[in-house]
Amino acid sequence: LFLSFYNASTKTNVTVPVLHVVQARLAYVAAEGELKQPFKDELPTRQAQLSTLQDTEEFDVLVVGGGATGSGCALDAVTRNLKTALVERNDFSSGTSSRSTKLIHGGVRYLQKAIMKLDYEQYMMVKEALHERSNLLDIAPHLSAPLPIMLPVYKWWQLPYYWAGIKMYDLVAGGQCLKSSYVLSKNKALELFPMLKKDKLVGAIVYYDGQHNDARMNLAIALTAARHGAAIANYTEVVHLLKKTDAGTGKEKVCGARCRDVITGNEFDVRAKCVINATGPFTDSLRKMDDGKNTNICQPSAGVHIVIPGYYSPDNMGLLDPATSDGRVIFFLPWEKMTIAGTTDTPTDITAHPIPREEDINFILNEVRNYLSPDVEVRRGDVLAAWSGIRPLVTDPNSKDTQSICRNHIVNVSDSGLVTIAGGKWTTYRSMAEETLDAAVAAHRLGGGPSKTVGLVLEGGQDWSPTLYIRLVQDYGLENEVAQHLAATYGGKAFDVAKMARVTGKRWPIVGNRLVSEFPYIESEVRYAVKEYACTAIDVIARRTRLGFLNVQAADEALPRIVDIMGKMLDWSDKKRTCNFSSLPWFFLYLEMGYRSRSEQLTGTTEITLDTQEVANSVLIDRYTNRFHKFDKDSKGFITTVDVQRVLQNISVQIDENALHEILNEVDLNKNGQVELNEFLQLMSAVKKGQVSDSRLAILMKTAEESLDLRGPVTVDRSGGGV
């Protein structure tokens, strides 16, 4: 089977075989066992890495940027036996690489464009991505897995149209097709995805792509590079580029960078034969350090995602909306036992701290409503977290038409020798890194041989198996859910995390104290995170664990224990502890992870609006006011933890005092340690309108009131009176 395309660059028709006979799923690296791993048993500390950066006379390659592409470049370089360094001004994967849709995919929509427009470049982009998808699933089996994605069809004519397109996707993948796509009847589609809207549904098509834990995958790439000898350091920024005059040409050439340790402020030079710019959305900043006359090539686009409870989707079935109300594509996917929905695509400014906009959150919610059954009430209050990632679309500086956005990635070598890699997709990070190093080797005559990263297993993947979690349960006495999480996060390194777990003092589990009760993250992960170069509490809640991306309130509750553990391990001062407990997490959770938008559902209006008719009769307001006064016995006009604790004791309910403080803090809008009547009425108004859901205080007070009402007055005979 063949497809014919028109190649615009050569102005010729090109015929390409779609289905290739593949003898093996992947050709693993024959030389993998021969690659040097000087730090196979123990990673060097961050301080040791900084010392290596300062003391090494000259590296072959210095990579600037610790995202997926930068980490991929470092891994590609060090496995070519090149002396490699990498610096990242924030944490590894702190930018776009941790804020993706979590898919490893070829791009169904790109293939559609390739076929409709007979575009050979788009076709090859999809084919390359499908090859990389297969490779990534194989080299990090603990962090990735195939995911079935359903495309619901509501018009009969669309069924053969979409089926043909999805089948073509399978054919282009060839022997690397994950699983064959298939068509479902209406009844079968609803059986597999019961939340789906039934009205006018004619059937569905299911195809397979990959899904991964993006931040952990990025970290695995960086740590694998470190294992092989690369000197990597997070929180190390480039102040300016170093240059020297080439004796042969008389031109200035980049020969390294002046770096600054963000944590200590210490500055030092890192010299290298080649500097690679892999800074994603900040590509132009480094290009202008090289030459102030360089024009911008990055065209940033913001993609917002939201996380809602897991009951919105089946455990192992995603959903694709191929044509939203404004022509965009929305994915609706199970992830980490929650549901992730996104993404938007809007122009934005470049910033290190992108913030999700309320209009984007509501756009996604509205699109979700269009595809779910009317029985499923999609509530704004169910949004547990929201984030915005900046996609670095680029124009090609080598092209005559510099205004045209490049659909793939670009590799550019400047006159001074700075190598820039920009654009591209998460899925193709490895091939982008290979192409970048090929260009760097050619431009700087580095040697080192060809790339060795196809099939090179990443950190944790070597000793992983689907049943590894059982050994964790049996050997260490971990909870089943915790063991599964550790195996899926750390792979073969999960045993190292389990060894660091403390005894719980309970009959079961024997070890593994949870950071928060509803998530499987345990305290020993914080200790292990320090070994993985975590420097702040945000590094732990956002990228070593994914708690901040899954539930901002749960992340906020886990902070005190995380700060306590890290503070002891890193010998933090009181000022440092305070910074990690309040200001830094506040900015991250409140702004970047959507906590502000969530809290604004309570504070967005001062008017308490309940059902119109009932408000007129004051029924609901009276009910809620009476409920409040059952706790505010002294008619102070506010309630504290003492008031709630007193009522709970009357109905024989016990709640930990710290947990009670956290429950009241969710509603305490002015943060004065007490909940006023107006704050409580605003809460109940927001709960009724669906703007806030699962409020623990609202549920607790309602339950307590019902228990008190059921008890009624104590009878005379039970009180010991009577005759």
TrEMBL record:
It comes from the Eukaryota. Its EC number is 1.1.5.3. It is found in: Mitochondrion. Keywords: Calcium, FAD, Flavoprotein, Metal-binding, Mitochondrion, Oxidoreductase, Repeat, Transit peptide. One of its GO terms (biological process) is glycerol-3-phosphate metabolic process. Pathway: Polyol metabolism; glycerol degradation. Its main location: mitochondrion. Residues 619-654, 655-690 form the EF-hand domain. It is an enzyme of class 1 (oxidoreductase). Signal peptide: none annotated. SUPFAM superfamilies: EF-hand (SSF47473), FAD-linked reductases, C-terminal domain (SSF54373), FAD/NAD(P)-binding domain (SSF51905). InterPro entries: DAO_C, DAO_C_sf, EF-hand-dom_pair, EF_Hand_1_Ca_BS, EF_hand_dom, FAD-dep_OxRdtase, FAD/NAD-bd_sf, G3P_DH_FAD-dep. GO terms for molecular function: calcium ion binding; glycerol-3-phosphate dehydrogenase (quinone) activity. The keyword Calcium applies. GO terms for cellular component: mitochondrion. It catalyses: a quinone + sn-glycerol 3-phosphate = dihydroxyacetone phosphate + a quinol. The keyword Flavoprotein applies. Its cofactor is FAD. PROSITE patterns: EF_HAND_1 (PS00018), EF_HAND_2 (PS50222), FAD_G3PDH_2 (PS00978). Calcium-responsive mitochondrial glycerol-3-phosphate dehydrogenase which seems to be a key component of the pancreatic beta-cell glucose-sensing device. Belongs to the FAD-dependent glycerol-3-phosphate dehydrogenase family. This is Glycerol-3-phosphate dehydrogenase, mitochondrial. It comes from Oncorhynchus mykiss. The lineage of its organism: Eukaryota, Metazoa, Chordata, Craniata, Vertebrata.
